[in-house]
Amino acid sequence: MIEIAALSGPVQATVVVAVILLQAVAFYVGYGLLERVFAPLIERFAKA
Q1: In the chain, where are the structural domains located?
Q2: Residues 31 and 24: beta-carbon distance below 8 Å
Q3: Sign of the C-alpha dihedral, residues 13, 19, 22, 26?
């Protein structure tokens, strides 16, 4: 495993930004899937 603290400052900043960007993409995809699965169920209960 790579030790992040051993990297230079700009490289550490780049790694942090990349990790945050990947997390944002994962949340976007994950919440999109949850919405696609549960939205019809919620709409069905709301109309009842």
Answers
A1: 10-47
A2: no
A3: negative
Which two three-digit tokens encode residue 2?
Answer: 């790579």
Neighbour-count burial for 7-21, b at 16+ CB within 10 Å, e otherwise: eeeeeeeeeeeeeee
Note whether 4 and 15 are within 8 A (CB). Answer: yes
Residue 22 pLDDT: 97
CA–CA dist 35, 2 (Å, integer): 36
pLDDT 10s digits, 1-48? 567 788 888 989 998 999 999 999 999 999 999 999 999 998 998 886
User: Distance between CA atoms of 30 and 14, rounded to whole angstroms?
Assistant: 24
